[in-house]
Amino acid sequence: MIVALSSDTDIAVENIGGKGAGLVRLLTAGLPVPEAWCIPADISLHAGSRASCLEEGLAHWWEGVDALFPGAPWAVRSSAVAEDLADASFAGVYETVLGVDSLDGLRDAVRTCWASFDDTRAQTYRDNLAKTNAVGIALILQRMISPDAAGVLLTANPLRPFAPEIVIDAAWGLGETVVSGRTDPDNFVLDRAGGTLRSRTLGAKATEAVWDHGVHVRDVESARRDEFCLTTPQLHDLHDLSKVATERIGPRRDLEWAIADGRLFVLQDRPITNLPSDDPVDVWSRRFGDEYLSDCTLPLPEDLMVPWIIEMSMKEMAGLQGRRDMAGMAPVRLHHGYAYFSGAYFVEGLRMLPSSMRSNGADQWFPPLVLDRVRAATWDPRLLAGFALAPWRDRRRSGLKNNLVALERHCAAIEATIVPKLDQDYGALSDGQWRRQYDEVNALGEEHFRIVRWGMTIYNSFLHALLQRLLETWCDDTSGELYQHVISGLDDTKTAMINTEITGLARTALDDAELTTMVRGGATYQHVRERTPVSQFWRSYDEFLARHGHRSDSRDIGRPRWREQPHLILELVRAQLRATDTARPQSNSSRQRRHTAETDALARLGNSPLGRVRRPILIRLMTLVQDYTRYRENQRYHLDYLLTHLRSLVLEQANRLVRQGILTEPDDVFLLRGEEFFAVIAGGAAPAELARHLDVRRAEFARNAARLPATYLFDNIETEVDTESSDEHPDLPEGAIGGTAFCHGLATGPARVVHTLADLGKVEAGDILVAPNIDPGWTSVFPLLSGLVVETGGKLSHGAILSREYGIPAVGGITGATKTIVDRAQLTVDGHTGSISL
Asked: Where does the PEP-utilising enzyme mobile domain start and stop, copy by copy (predicted)?
C-alpha cells in the first residue's frame, strides 16, 4: 500500500506521479536523497482504499519509520500523475504539508493533499494544459531535514536559455520560502562547464522557515541578511550536482536541494518546462514591429488594420512575384497581443538571391539560427525572374520615381476625401453613409500599404544600404559619419514642421509670464487653462491641435489621438520651457552639417575621370535617399488621418451599441473581434455571454500590455537569445550591454525613462532618453537630449533615422531597457560600438 522509493522502484509514473518518478531518477543517478515512500495514485481513487490507508496503512508505516528515525519531521507532498512532465511542471499547484511529527498530523496532511486534487486552482491548471485525463494523485512521504540553506538549481538559465549557464536561488532555512516566493533569495549564475561564478545578487532574505517542533517563519537578523548564504565550496558542490544530473538524468533540470550540517541533499527533480527548442520549426521576431505594430494590440484593431499590412504589403507582394507558396504562408502573427514576423517567411523570400547577396537590413531582426538558415537555403534563380517582373505587374505604384509620385497622389487623395470628414458629426451618419465611409477608408488603407510596400520595404532599405556602401568605398567613410550627416537636417518633413511649431508654442508661452511659471512648475493642463483662459498661447495651441490633432504615438486605432488628449502637447511645451530661460528656434546645425557632408563627400571623389563619373551617381543617390527619408515620415503623417477617421467611425458605432445596451462603455468596442463587430452593427444578436468574454479579454489585454514581451518566439515559446557581449562586441568594456548602433557619438548623462508621450514633460536638457520605441511625435524634445536608448528597431527604424537627423548618440535593440534602467541612473551611450553602460 505504501511503497519505499529506491533506485530499484519499478512503478509507472501513472501511479507514483511526477515527484515520485523524479526521486527515483535522483536515486538511480546515485544522488543523496532523503528517505522517501509513496502512496500510489490508485489509492486516492476509491473511498475504501483511502479509508484503509488512513487507518491501517499509515499507522503501520508510522510505527516503522518512527523506530528508524525517532522524532524526525516528515513532509507530505502531492505528486499528481501528470506532474513534472516535460510539458507541465505542476509546480505549486497541489498541496505540500511540512513538519509532520505525529500519526494524527500525518493523517490530516494526507487528507489535505488528496483534497487539493479537486481544488479549483488544480482543475484550472489541468484544463489549460488539456490534462483532463489526469487520474488520481500520488503522495510522497519524505523525511524532512533541517537545512542551514536551501533553494533551487536550474541547469539552464530560463532568461538566457541558450547560454552555457546554471542558475541557483538560495535562502536561509527551508527551501519552501524560495519556491513559494515568500522571500527574496540570493541569486547565483555559474558557468555550466567550469563552475566559474558569472554573477551573484544579494537577496533581502528577510524571512526564513525553520523546523522547531513545527515549521515556523521568522525574521532573519540583519547580519545574516547582508551575507550570501552559500560559500564558494558549497557553490562548487552545487555545480557538481548540476553536472551529475545532466550526465545521468538529462539536460534542463529543475532541482530542489538543501544543505544540512555541511551535507548536500537533493529533494526533487523535474524538467524545466516551456524552454525553447534549439531547432524550432520557425523563429518569430518582434523586432519587425517598430514601424506599425510596436504596441500590444487590441482585438478589433488587429482585425481591421493588421490585414492592410499583411495582405497588401506581404501576401499581395508575394503574389506579384509569382510566389504562391509564400502567399499561403503566415508572415506575421500576434502572440498575446504583440506582432511577430516569421523567420521561415524571411528565409523563403531570400531564396531568389545567391547566398552571398542575402544580407540586408532585416538581418538584425533575427538571431543567428535564422541567419544560418538564410545562408543554407537553396538558391532558385527562377525566383529572381518573378521578383524582377513584380514591378512591371504593379507598374502604377513601383519604380523609384513613380513610387514617390504615387505616394504624393495618395496623400492628396487622403487630404481631399478624409480630412474634411474628421470634423463631421459622426452621430448624424445613417447606416448606409457609415458603411460607405468605412469602405472608403478601408480602401485607402489598403492602397496606402500597396504603395509603401515598395518605398518602405524595398527602396528605402536598398537606397540607404547602397549610400552607406558607396560613401565607405568611394569616400573612405569608414566611421559612417558622412552617411549620418547626409541624411540629417531634412527640415521639410512633417515631423520637423511639427517640432518647429511646438518650439513656436513655447516662445508664445514666454509672452505670458503667469502661464510660463505655472507650466514650468508642473501645473496640469486643466489648471493652467482655467487660470489663463484669454492668453494668446491657447489660440495658437488650439490651432496646432486643429492641424495636427489626428496624430498619435501609436498606430493602433484603440489608442486616443492627440485631439482627444490635448494635455499631451502641453508636456512637449513644458519640456521646452524647462530647458532654457528663453525658448530658442530649433538649431540649423544639422542642416549645415548635411550641406557640409554633401560637399565633403563630393570633394573626396576627386577630379580624376573616375571621380567625375561617380559624382552624378552619388549626387543622385544622396537626393533619392533624402527623398525616401522624407517619404518615410510623411506617409506616416497621412496614415494617421486614415486611422483617426477609422477610429471615429468605430467609436460612433460603439456609442450606438452602448445605447442599445450591448456594450457598457464605448472603448469596449475595441475588445470585439471583427466578425463580432460587423455582426452586431448589422443588427444581429449579441453573442451569448458577450459581457463575460469582454471581461476576459480586458483582463488579458491589461496583463499583456503591462508585461515586457519576449524578442523572439521559438515556435510558440517566448525566448531571448542572449549571446555573450564579447562574441558580438569584442571591444566592449566589462559590464557594457551591446545593442545596435543607431547614431555615432558618445554621451553620458542621467537616464530619463519614459513609456508614453505623457512622460516627455519630465525631460530636462542633457537627459538620455530611454524608451520602448520612438514615434516621430516624440522628437520635439530631441534637441534637449544628450543620448537615446530604445528597446526595439533596426538601423532604418524611426528611432534610428530621427537620432541621426538630430545628431544624438543612440543605441537600439536594448531589450527591456525601460524595465531594467532606473530613472535618473547615470548612463553612458556609445553610438560607435552600439553599447550602453550604467
From this structure: 764-834
Enclosing H/E stretch for 186? strand 186-191
Give the model confidence (pLDDT) of 177-221 as tens digits.
898 888 899 999 999 999 999 999 999 999 998 888 878 889 999
| Strand pairing report for 74-80 and 207-211 | unpaired
Half-sphere exposure (Cβ direction) of 639: Cα atoms closer than 13 Å: 27
* Of 778 and 732, the one with more pLDDT: 778
SS3 content of the chain, % helix, strand, coil (to 5): 50, 15, 35
Distance (Å, rounded) from C-alpha 517 to C-alpha 143? 71
Angle at 356 between CA 354 and CA 358, to 5 degrees: 75
* AA letter at 89: S
Average pLDDT over residues 153-161: 88
**Which pLDDT score, from 0 to 100, does residue 727 have?**
41
Break the chain into its structural domains and give their ranges: 3-143, 149-271, 494-585, 725-837
Instruction: Give residue for cell 550536482.
Output: 241
Which residues are within 8 A (CB) of 101 and not within 5 positions of it... i.e. 6 or more apart?
Answer: 71, 72, 73, 74, 213, 214
CA distance 733 to 143: 49
Length of the chain: 838
- Please say whether the beta carbons of 75 and 98 come within 8 A: yes
Residue 460 is given by DSSP the state: I
Residue-by-residue DSSP string for 531-576? HSTT-HHHHHHHHHHHHHTT--S-S-TTSPPGGG-THHHHHHHHHH
Residue reference for cell 530649433:
586
Quick check: 797 and 464 in contact, CB under 8 A? Answer: no
Domain range 725-837, CATH class: alpha beta
Residue 127 has pLDDT above 70, yes or no: no
Q: Which residues of 5-39 are buried (b: 16+ CB within 10 A; e: fewer)?
A: beeebebebbbbbbbbbbbbbbbebebebbbbbbb
Q: Is 413 left (phi over 0), alpha (psi -120 to 50) or beta?
A: alpha
Contact 116, 90 (CB under 8 A): no
Looking at every residue in the chain, the average pLDDT score rounds to: 88
Q: Residue written as cell 503566415?
A: 330
**Domain 149-271 fold:** D-amino Acid Aminotransferase; Chain A, domain 1 (3.30.470)
**Three-class SS of residue 826?**
strand
Backbone CA torsion sign across 244, 247, 249, 250: positive
- Three-state DSSP state, 163: coil
**What span, in angstroms and rounded, lies between the C-alpha atoms of 119 and 393?**
62
User: Please, what's the largest Cα pairwise distance for the chain?
Assistant: 104
Residue 824 three-state SS: coil
DSSP one-letter code for 281:
S
Q: Which is nearest to 14 in space by CA: 141, 140, 137? A: 137
Burial of 620 (0-12, 13-18, 19+ CB in 10 A): exposed
- Angstrom distances, CA of residue 686 to CA of 185, 657, 660, 689: 50, 10, 11, 8
Task: Quote the CATH superfamily of domain 3-143.
Answer: ATP-grasp fold, A domain (3.30.1490.20)
Residue 192 CA from chain centroid, whole number: 27
End-to-end CA distance of the chain: 60
Q: What confidence tens digit (pLDDT) does each residue in 447-460 have?
A: 999 999 999 888 98
Facing residues of 338 across strands? 335
